[in-house]
Design goal:
The protein has 194 residues and is an alpha+beta fold. The chain is built from seven helices and six strands.
Length: 194
């Protein structure tokens, strides 16, 4: 069972990724690689990926494009890997953080400033906060808002990879990403019987 003590240890581990100095506005340093590889890596931020978006009024899906975070393993999307069984690339939608802030302020959520701080502190299991990129945007992604692409379609973007990739995670960013992804999808049984 995942006791309160063990859950607390996981939270302590997560908090070690953050700077404790409350006077600093910057939570993270060296989050992205200084230069890119010629192939996509797990955790890459990629421009303009097609997502199905459900329209609740019309009760149907439409196609929209969003920047996205590559969830799939690097080896699973690399086209040089020969495979007998076709694989798909899994990607999570990236939401500009200022859009997220605007939305929670518009709908009048109480304690909006606390929620913003909690998101930046990685305190939501399904939300991953990504600090400011070279494009001067910071993002969030929801681990429960995913899409799939054919690997060949993703690899076609490699022809202009320096344009199509926004960032690659450095070790710090990658370990935090894997920690959050694992915590979201692979939690041990909780004390509550379900």
């Amino acid at each position: 069972e995942l006791t309160e003590q063990k859950k607390g240890r996981l939270q302590v581990g997560l908090n070690q990724f953050l700077k404790v100095n409350a006077n600093e506005n910057k939570y993270y340093t060296e989050f992205y690689l200084p230069k890119f590889n010629p192939y996509f890596l797990q955790g890459d931020l990629i421009r303009e990926i097609r997502f199905p978006v459900f329209n609740k009024v019309e009760r149907q899906y439409k196609k929209e494009y969003f920047d996205a975070l590559l969830i799939s393993n690097t080896c699973d999307v690399e086209d040089s890997n020969r495979r007998n069984v076709p694989k798909h690339a899994i990607l999570a939608k990236l939401i500009p953080f200022d859009s997220f802030i605007e939305t929670i302020n518009e709908i009048g959520i109480e304690n909006a400033s606390n929620i913003i701080t909690q998101v930046k502190n990685q305190q939501y299991s399904n939300i991953f906060y990504l600090p400011e990129t070279r494009t001067n945007k910071d993002y969030i992604t929801y681990f429960d808002d995913l899409t799939v692409l054919e690997v060949e379609e993703l690899n076609a973007l490699k022809e202009e990879i320096n344009i199509n990739r926004i960032e690659s995670l450095d070790y710090f960013g990658y370990y935090l990403f894997i920690f959050k992804l694992s915590f979201h999808f692979c939690r041990l049984p909780e004390e509550t019987q379900r």
